[in-house]
TrEMBL record:
<dbReference type="GO" id="GO:0032259">
    <property type="term" value="P:methylation"/>
</dbReference>
<keyword id="KW-0808">Transferase</keyword>
<feature type="domain" description="Methyltransferase">
    <location>
        <begin position="45"/>
        <end position="140"/>
    </location>
</feature>
<dbReference type="GO" id="GO:0008168">
    <property type="term" value="F:methyltransferase activity"/>
</dbReference>
<dbReference type="Pfam" id="PF13649">
    <property type="entry name" value="Methyltransf_25"/>
</dbReference>
<keyword id="KW-0489">Methyltransferase</keyword>
<dbReference type="InterPro" id="IPR041698">
    <property type="entry name" value="Methyltransf_25"/>
</dbReference>
<dbReference type="InterPro" id="IPR029063">
    <property type="entry name" value="SAM-dependent_MTases_sf"/>
</dbReference>
<protein>
    <submittedName>
        <fullName>Class I SAM-dependent methyltransferase</fullName>
    </submittedName>
</protein>
Length: 226
């Protein structure tokens, strides 16, 4: 979620012309869509960091209302041209940007953030997750995907081609979600392969109550502010 994506939007679309790079990714997003439909909350899924809109389109095809949000105008132009029947708005992971676009009468029902939180500085991530949880209804769903860390480290930076980025330990991300009021339901972790340099995690959590839980036992986050 950085301005560098504006300069590389066309190249990005050539490199990633499809919504998913593996059957696992496709299945995870399909499972997320089913969880959203089970919740039956009013409002739309917000696809945060939607890029050129392929996953947004996959969600719409799965039968859930969805709006794509991205800070890159160039990426949004590609998304709108490819999927003119869908809605895309300019915004960031900060819900203030997309709640203004949606309007007060269209609350978010769920949030999808696939490989977009990786560009948010680690000390900001807990606050972002809390801001999502505050706006979601009971039963609201969040799915985050990120390059993962093995072992004892909580979060490490890595050499992303476009912008500063961080990899997270799945347990630490789950702790942040829980502290925000979002309870993990399931996760997947895939191993590196020819197309993926690092392990990758998809983690789904649900807002089960109106009040955040008591601060849970830490799982070893070693970064100040985590």
């Amino acid at each position: 979620m950085q301005p560098g994506y504006d300069h590389l939007a066309a190249e990005y679309e050539r490199a990633f012309p499809e919504a998913f790079r593996s059957p696992l990714e496709r299945g995870v997003v399909a499972a997320f869509a089913e969880q959203v439909k089970e919740c039956a909350a009013e409002g739309s899924v917000v696809d945060v960091g939607c890029g050129t809109g392929h996953v947004t389109a996959a969600l719409a095809a799965a039968g859930v209302p969805v709006v794509g949000v991205d800070p890159s105008q160039a990426m949004l132009e590609i998304a709108r041209a490819a999927h003119p029947e869908l809605r895309f708005v300019r915004g960031t992971c900060d819900p203030v940007t997309w709640t203004q676009a949606l309007g007060a009468d269209e609350p978010p029902a769920a949030v999808l953030a696939r490989f977009s939180l990786i560009h948010v500085a680690p000390d900001r991530v807990p606050g972002i997750l809390r801001s999502w949880a505050e706006r979601l209804p009971i039963g609201g769903v969040v799915l985050v995907a990120f390059q993962a860390v093995d072992g004892g480290r909580a979060v490490v930076s890595f050499d992303h081609a476009v912008a500063p980025a961080w990899r997270w330990h799945p347990d630490v991300m789950a702790d942040h979600l829980l502290r925000a009021g979002l309870t993990e339901r399931w996760r997947t972790v895939s191993r590196p392969d020819a197309d993926h340099r690092f392990p990758e995690c998809h983690l789904l959590a649900v807002k089960e109550t109106s009040e955040p839980p008591a601060v849970p036992v830490s799982r070893g986050c070693s970064v100040d502010g985590c």
